[in-house]
Structure formats: structure tokens, C-alpha cells
Amino acid sequence: MCSQKLIRRELQAQRNNWMSGYGFSNIYEVFVRKICVGPGIEFDETNLTAEIESMFAETRLQSKICYVEKRGEIRVVGFAGMVNGSAIVSRLADRNDLVVSAPSFTPPSVYFFLEGDLTYYCVKELNDLFFRANNFIKDGNTSIVGRKRMKIAGLVLTKVTMNITGKNREKLLDHDGKIHFRTVTVRCYDDIKLEFCLNCLRFGHGVNSCSNKTKCAVCLNEHDDVCTPNGSMSTCCTVCPVHERGGHLTFSVNCPSYQRAVELNLKRYALDYDWVMVPNNIVYF
Known about the structure:
This protein is α+β, with helices and mostly antiparallel strands. The protein has 3 domains: 27-101, Alpha-Beta Plaits (2-Layer Sandwich); 106-190, Alpha-Beta Plaits (2-Layer Sandwich), CATH 3.30.70; 194-267, no CATH class. Helix content is 25%, strand content 26%. Strands 3-4-2-5 form a 4-stranded antiparallel beta sheet, covered by helices on one side. The protein has a 4-stranded antiparallel beta sheet with strand order 7-8-6-11, with helices on one face. The model has no long low-confidence stretch (mean pLDDT 79).
């Protein structure tokens, strides 16, 4: 990226509250399952980790294990660095007691909201309208993949999700992350499935799957009754722990908790962006 374009991007990022993607490590995950797991048979994670590390040493791959996550009988091994995914899978697959697979990354996509019900349009017709209005390139990847009719405060909206890659995403960034549809221009956001729970005020899940205690957004204590704001209370982040709470608001791009949640979700997607387009309030998105 040339210096002038880089400066322009940085100004756009500051103006639109895009979150910097610089320094986000690329993660490659491998699913490992032991064929025979039962009473008295344990999944020896220590030996698995040691074997993978020795494999890296033999092949001189500059990578390391970031984490080993337990999901029932499956272990998810996350790697960072210069990773040859197929080499990892084939090497581990040589063991007779393991079933190894690599999850496919979700293609990059954006979402945006348009007033009215667009679900009655056929996808081809909508794609043609968006391609003409935004001068998109037909690259075989850019396409509408989802439409959801919503009603917020009595207003009917359609949430549109679109896979968009390469030069077409660059076109979005050139236009401050805005997309055109007929006479309307709306802002887009990177669709990284970022969830926020209004019950416990934490990232990573929604209200329907929350098993935590209710946290009050006013006094930040755990209680179920209604808390009335008073003039002596200061506005602060409702997500961060006490030592990180000052100096920013909830969902601010400067919020450490928001940044960690975005970085964690980006690891699950095929994204390699300098800036991530995030909303200023994900509760409504």
C-alpha cells in the first residue's frame, strides 16, 4: 500500500472508528479427536503438544501452539506464525489413534441495514442492483448470502449480509465503508459474528444462552431489580473490569474488552485486514 493511500486509510479509520487490525496474529486451528476415548482412557494433551512441537522442530517451521481448547471429546489446537496447515494435518493423521481435521474458514463478509422489506427480491436481482450502484467487480465471490427482515421501534428494516473480497472490499473502504442502493447510502460493518449479552454485559454469547448472573448496566453490580440512575454516577464502560474501566465508553474502539473480543473472533475467519469495520453499538446489530 503506497504511503498516500496508507495515510488516507488511517484518516478514514480515525473518522469512522474502525478498529486497527495491525498486530492481530493469524491463527490456524486443527481439530483432533482420539478414536478410543472411554472409561480409564484419557486424552493426553501433554504428549500431543510435545509431539506437535517436535514436528515443528524437525521441519523448521516457525510456529508455535497458542492454545489447546477442550470441546467435549475434541481438542482444538491453535497455531500462530508461518503455518503449513496441510503439513500439520497430514503429520498428525499418521497416528492410528487420532482423527484429525482442519476447519474451513468462513469467507469474509459485511452486513448493512436498509429500510423496508427486501426479502421479496430474488438474490440475482439484488446482486445486479448492488453491483451497478457500487461499480463492483464480478469476481465470483462477491454476492448476497443472507437477508433478514427486522422491526425496530416500529420501523421495518432488512439486514443484508454480503460476501465481499479483494478489490470490491477496497472499493468499500475507499467510500468510507459505505454502500449504495438506489438513492440510499448506508454504512457497512465486517460480519465477524461478534455477540454481546445484555444480561451479564459480556462478549462471546447472547442473552438466550447466558448462564451468568444479571449485571446492572447502571451501578455495575449483580442484581435483578430496577436500578435508578442518579446524578453522582459517572458514565463509564460497563464491560471492562475496574482497573480498565476509565477513559472510554462501552463499545468504544479504545475499549480493551472490545478489542480482545474482535481479535478473538477474527481468528475464526479468513480475514487479513489492516482495519476492521465495527459498529459503535453491537447490541442493535
